[in-house]
Amino acid sequence: MTTSPPPASGGPVSDELLKDLAAASRILVAQGVVDGFGHVSLRHPNAPDRFLMSRSLAPALVTPEDILEYDLEGQACNANGRSSFLERFIHSEIYKARPDIHSVVHSHSPSVIPFGLVRLKMQAMFHNAAFLAEGVPVFDIREKFGATDMLVGNGAKGTALAEVMGAKDVVLMRAHGSVACAASLPMAVFRAVYTEVNARVQHWTQALAQGDAVQGLDVDEGRLADEVNKTTGMRAWDLWRAQIRAQVNW
Amino acid sequence: MTTSPPPASGGPVSDELLKDLAAASRILVAQGVVDGFGHVSLRHPNAPDRFLMSRSLAPALVTPEDILEYDLEGQACNANGRSSFLERFIHSEIYKARPDIHSVVHSHSPSVIPFGLVRLKMQAMFHNAAFLAEGVPVFDIREKFGATDMLVGNGAKGTALAEVMGAKDVVLMRAHGSVACAASLPMAVFRAVYTEVNARVQHWTQALAQGDAVQGLDVDEGRLADEVNKTTGMRAWDLWRAQIRAQVNW
Amino acid sequence: MTTSPPPASGGPVSDELLKDLAAASRILVAQGVVDGFGHVSLRHPNAPDRFLMSRSLAPALVTPEDILEYDLEGQACNANGRSSFLERFIHSEIYKARPDIHSVVHSHSPSVIPFGLVRLKMQAMFHNAAFLAEGVPVFDIREKFGATDMLVGNGAKGTALAEVMGAKDVVLMRAHGSVACAASLPMAVFRAVYTEVNARVQHWTQALAQGDAVQGLDVDEGRLADEVNKTTGMRAWDLWRAQIRAQVNW
Amino acid sequence: MTTSPPPASGGPVSDELLKDLAAASRILVAQGVVDGFGHVSLRHPNAPDRFLMSRSLAPALVTPEDILEYDLEGQACNANGRSSFLERFIHSEIYKARPDIHSVVHSHSPSVIPFGLVRLKMQAMFHNAAFLAEGVPVFDIREKFGATDMLVGNGAKGTALAEVMGAKDVVLMRAHGSVACAASLPMAVFRAVYTEVNARVQHWTQALAQGDAVQGLDVDEGRLADEVNKTTGMRAWDLWRAQIRAQVNW
Q1: Chain A nearest-CA residue for B127
Q2: Whole-angstrom distance, CA of residue C205 vs CA of residue C213
Q3: CB A96 within 8 A of CB A43
Q4: Using CA atoms, how far apart are residues A112 and A133, in angstroms rounded to an integer?
Q5: Model's pTM, two decimal places?
Q6: C110–D228: do the CB atoms touch at under 8 Å?
Q7: How far apart are CA B117 and CA A236, in angstroms?
């Protein structure tokens, strides 16, 4: 409990943007990426050292009114007594380390967790998951911090996570979950969804392969296919956004 | 059929508590933990030698009016001709053996059953399932009782189950199902749900591991993470409770 | 196309029974046992040489008005131009061979099909599937009939299927599906549902077992547990029946 | 951007046909074959060198008004500024190469993708998937075109795909998806659905088989069973079509 004043806001953002961010939270529920836990954030469109993220709340319940603004130390600008997610440092430290990233999704999507617990690596099984072709690192919080509650609950842990992620866009967290990032909200959601779908596909593929190599996307194919996804991926976002709009009227 | 009078009640309980217990039953359906079978109970808040549990009924149909009160011998205080679950002794004997436990869920959740039939042990695959890191014993009713109908249908069988569970919070039952316990109703439901989710995750993890060790939570991580879950787990309960309230208006 | 008159009816049956049989068809859809294909029948309550079954129609669309009556040669008593399922001989020949059976379900439920294609046998993984503990034979139509369209489309093929089933209550059909039988409609539906659930559980169990024996129900446990299921199984039927009633108002 | 005029139309088609094609798109969503991506087309009933297909749009959103007409070079006759799917050349080149085919479905249905990434071949696991018994080739775009964005985005790539498909009705695309074809719209949809169902069944079958041969349909059985499916398959189409009609009123 600090008595220092909250950080200044980066300035007002449009209602449309707050609605999209709240809708993203519900899209991730509808697509099976998050359950009662997980969160999605968006860098402030006009202030790169601020980001927007729901107060601590189950993703299915988030409304535009629940979105708070944070600085890159994870301090809320406008909490007014509302509590914050313990793991907002995942977001703040990635925004600090990676100026190209404007949106971050953290989830415990169930098909992805196994790839954080074994030696076999996640690969891109099909073009929609092309962003995985560059490789998917695993962050083991135990290496630097010993036995913990597994949460990225402060800046130092967020920094360590961002370091393991490096220049990639997805990082797995051992015995916990994963993070998917992108230059825009729709693409971060797209990547979180297709990381989960790809994991399901890879489970079955590895079972069929019986130890043989698997002919997923190579690095060149991944780079080329990801360029297309950045455009065509909006088709998925537009569909998902419309489905949420039909439920909540915003 | 005994003609002795039913045991005395431990006293009235609030409507809110009866509604929460009935809602818990429906939450377990919604989360895929129970189907037409399974039950959840709550120790009486003012009388530790009494507990509350639905009459024999499919979990999806339970209402607050269906909740009966039992003593720790599994005798209903207020049956009035309503029939009881054959396996209420799972609950009565665990309450007898474990004063720290205030809520018990019994289910046949399908992903969990396999871990009661093989040598490989259930482990905690991620922080939400931290309560499994202390180890998950398997109760084989055949060891003490020979060939049976597999049901924990009397006090002696309930006692044997509670003995195998010991100081743990989850116990598997060979060729039958499992039991998840906690100090509160929300946490027992949370543990029943994440025992099932963890089982699904572990199936895929073992398949990927191809016999190698799996890097789940160790005992220290499990202890630390479970402390956090006892607080943050309410976020899941609040969501699930709201979803049931929207359906049934209580 | 024969010009002989249709067989005589075994007499009228109650509306309630026709509704239950039509509801059974929809229950099997809701439980994932049948899709656009599959059928359930009931022996005529007063005429053991007649049975009741929907005209050829997707199970989700069956209403009480679609139920036809057949003799044990698979001839419809009251078709009035309505077409019959090609595989009604599965039903007619089982009723002929097994006076104790009063209801039959045929499905292609997807988790069960694999057990008809490999050497490993289906076993009872938990007490709800106790009826499988006596063993599950596989009918390979190719053995007696060579290359066919795989359908049990005449009496001879139905007879051969019933012979392979023998005194058991479930039989798999290679590269096709399975049949679940019982002394009553609710129990046949119960067995069809839990044959599918058991298959899912066994898939995961075999994967974990890595070639070791699996500790499912033994024959004695199966016999004892099945006795209980015949009573408690009505709890599932009552739930499923109520769910259909809420949709169709009959 | 060409300034040449669009190709001439093959003539008007009935509203009923446009509704069926739009409904097919939504059926594929409902059956889990397509998500935000994928498309279904129909050869023009009166002009074999034209085909009908939605403008670029998520399949769940397609209405009869979104259907465009194309020539066999993938040029739209009536785009009026509406954008086309990048991969319409899958359809145009298959229609060019195979006069017997009148409907094509392209999807990334998730259970099918693994069979495009490993050596083990897809087989027909049960009679509904009889059309797979003739064998399922895999198109690897890398063989002829090197590293690409994985899309069949021009006529040359479509031609190469159609060549690998040859006289078969289903072809897998490495690290991408698959194509299912038939002589009619209902059968193409049926085959797309049962290719996915068959893949799920085969995954479990291969796991049980532990390297042994799997007793799926042989070529003769496949041929005989497929004949029946061409008739009985309409039962599934009629059900699926009715379910969409109930949602959209067309």
Answers
A1: A176
A2: 10
A3: no
A4: 15
A5: 0.97
A6: no
A7: 42
